[in-house]
Design goal:
This protein has 2 domains: 123 residues, MutM-like, N-terminal (N-terminal domain of MutM-like DNA repair proteins, Alpha-Beta Barrel), CATH 3.20.190.10; 124 residues, Helicase, Ruva Protein, domain 3 (Orthogonal Bundle), CATH 1.10.8. The chain contains 7 helices and 10 strands. The strands form 3 sheets. It has a 4-stranded antiparallel beta sheet. A 4-stranded antiparallel beta sheet has the order 2-3-4-8, with helices on both faces. Strand 6 and strand 7 form a beta hairpin. Helix 1 runs parallel beside helix 7 and helix 6 crosses helix 7. It holds the Pfam family zf-FPG_IleRS.
Length: 271
């Protein structure tokens, strides 16, 4: 599932391509991906312009010139591609939005959605999300306050969108590794030093991953050499059985609260 770095990478690329370009066509191949009748959805968008692309957690918000917003959540397996019909990868598309000869393809939206909302509706949809850890207003002290009184496994906390926004399975494991903490470490037992180390690890991993395009498997457009570059940089995620690059141990895969977890038992600890 695309997480904060992947969606921020998409936001940057979309902002370079789509701002103030009129929408010339809309195709909906899966009605469950949108929140209204296909004809009404297309009629509302054709002629509209995207004036700003915002990311919030794992979502993108396309701000239209009339104040409404398109809210996108790609969910599991979701991808975006921008280009001509001839350039389009051989994948099923759920929604297609045309900007002249170029088309923004929403792929793999079987579990995701693209909803046209009012400002009030979009704000309500985002209202329960926790803070962004890369926000410049976030401080070590505020982060420690977020953890105060929390209980349970570290990974469960990191992927809880109502506590911390934007982190999913991949980066939770990468952050725990960077912080030298087990994903199963109990939050209520973390020392102040461990919490400070965790804060720095979150910011480092998310920043590094964002700068090199996240771990998406497919370029955003023809000629895109950035998207997906972090896939080869993951230290533990999807690396079961491989040697740890830090300590020489072997990466283990297990499950925690129904989620797959990757970690090194030699260099990750409870504190």
């Amino acid at each position: 599932m695309p997480e904060l770095p992947e969606m921020e990478n998409y936001r940057r690329l979309l902002s370079q391509q789509l701002i103030n370009m009129p929408i010339t066509g809309v195709t909906v191949n899966r009605e469950k991906s949108i929140n209204m009748e296909t004809e009404a959805f297309a009629a509302a968008l054709i002629g509209a312009r995207i004036v700003f692309v915002e990311r919030r957690a794992k979502h993108l918000l396309f701000h239209l010139q009339d104040g409404r917003r398109l809210l996108l959540h790609l969910m599991l397996g979701g991808l975006l591609f921008y280009g001509t019909e001839a350039e389009r990868p051989e994948r099923s598309t759920q929604v297609e939005i045309s900007f002249g000869e170029n088309i923004l393809y929403f792929m793999g939206l079987r579990l995701g959605y693209l909803h046209l909302l009012s400002v009030k509706e979009s704000e309500a949809a985002m209202g329960k999300l926790g803070p962004e850890l890369l926000d410049r207003r976030m401080t070590p002290e505020r982060f420690a306050g977020l953890l105060k009184g929390r209980r349970g496994a570290l990974k469960s906390l990191l992927v809880n969108q109502q506590v911390i926004a934007g982190i999913g399975n991949c980066y939770a494991d990468e952050i725990a590794f960077e912080a030298r903490l087990l994903p199963s470490a109990l939050v209520q037992h973390l020392t102040p030093e461990s919490v400070a180390r965790l804060y720095e690890s979150i910011r480092k991993v998310l920043t590094d991953a964002t700068e090199i395009g996240g771990y998406m498997e497919m370029p955003f457009m023809t000629g895109d050499t950035v998207t997906g570059s972090y896939n080869d940089q993951c230290m533990v995620y999807d690396r079961e059985g491989e040697p740890c690059q830090r300590g020489g141990g072997t990466i283990i895969r297990t499950e925690l609260s129904g989620r797959k977890v990757f970690y090194c038992p030699d260099c990750q600890h409870e504190q």
